[in-house]
Amino acid sequence: MPSMTMPADTATPDGKQKPKLTFGEMFRTSDGRSLLFTFVLVSTLFGLWGFCNGQLDVLNKHFQSSLGLTKAQSALVQFAAFMGYFVMALPAGYLARRFGYKGGIIIGLVLIAVGAFWFIPATSIGTYGAFLTGLFVLAAGLACLETVANPYATVLGPPQAAAARINMAQTCNGLGVMLGPIVGGKLLGLSTTAVSNKSNASLYLPYLLIGVVVTILAVLFAVSKVPDLEQPSDSRATSGSSGRALWSRPHFSWAVAAQFLYVGAQISIWAFFINYVKEALLALGHPISDYGAASLFSLGGFGLFLVGRFTGSLILRSSSPQRVLALYSAINAVLMLLVMAPLGWISLGGLLLSFFFMSIMFPTIFSLGIHGLGDQTKQASAFIVMAIVGGALLPFPTGWIADRFSMSIGFVVPLLCFVGVLVYALRWDRLHEGAR
Predict the structure, then answer these.
(1) What tens digit of pLDDT does each residue of 158-213 get?
(2) Residue 136 belongs to a domain with what CATH number?
(3) φ, ψ (nearest 5 deg) of residue 17
């Protein structure tokens, strides 16, 4: 891979100057060890949970057809999945502290395998509750992975490259999210005509694939050397600090709220993307099938999401993460206004473009929230992952508004969420300084 360098005048979030780093130096410890292989191995986990989460939104629309659900009822798909994150995040943080990063990863992979293989009997049972149970267990495993892998990516090299590293790993997540709807749509047998598929007979197939892949990954991690590292601490992150002291760090506590809002916005958009596209194109005189909308979701939306992750990781190597986050949040708020307006193709284009500007938000909020926390990082990581519960709760008001007014008006929920993230980004410097 060709050498890539960072400009010498770039700065970390707290204003300290970044030294010039080559690509290889981004993964090298102070004692000279290269952690590039470990980073690549951990990055596969980002792709895995992206693939799993990318299928949720296909399931959301599919269950509306196969089980006769309203938009608000179908939001239980997101509720079950992200409640799994909420319930498991704190135990996952404990497991990471007790068994280290490697142990936490293996436990997460085992839970994912259990949840994925459960879809085989769940398909025979055929009830909504059976499918939601599998999603909940699988998501509990994903919560373990996210609690461990997100902070781990930030410590696999010099601290000044932490935001760039986590966004680089999240590029694999973007690839997984893009492939999820395509593979899931094919294996689920989504209709390629205007008539929706009402059968759940093949619902187990994408999850059988996930179960097999996860089992292989668990074996690979078990036999690989995964060093247990800690994030460097600043003067306020002392060993043995209490949970109360952690919540007194404003840049962390506000990050939990910002992550709640961001994930709520993201999942609200993803959950009802297919609904919005079908309604918008029908109004424009271009009806589209469920599979066609899912393909646009994957190749168009998640294609832009992947490009955003890749370009974002490059931008963040030379720009302050809080400023990039503020810019992207402001742009997404404007795009949501376009989505809500009856502007036809412009509104549809705004919805697709929002994927690009959502791309860097989760990892950037994460890296800003755990900045300088030292041995409190794993505990802080658990709380930030716990904030993913926003994805369980906020699709409900989005769907409720859509059922009573219109799908476009429902996007007022992500609009307000992006404004909240913008406030966090603009105030980050003051919040970080406030704990001094």
Answers:
(1) 877 777 787 788 778 778 877 877 777 777 665 444 445 566 777 888 889 899 99
(2) 1.20.1250.20
(3) -70, 135
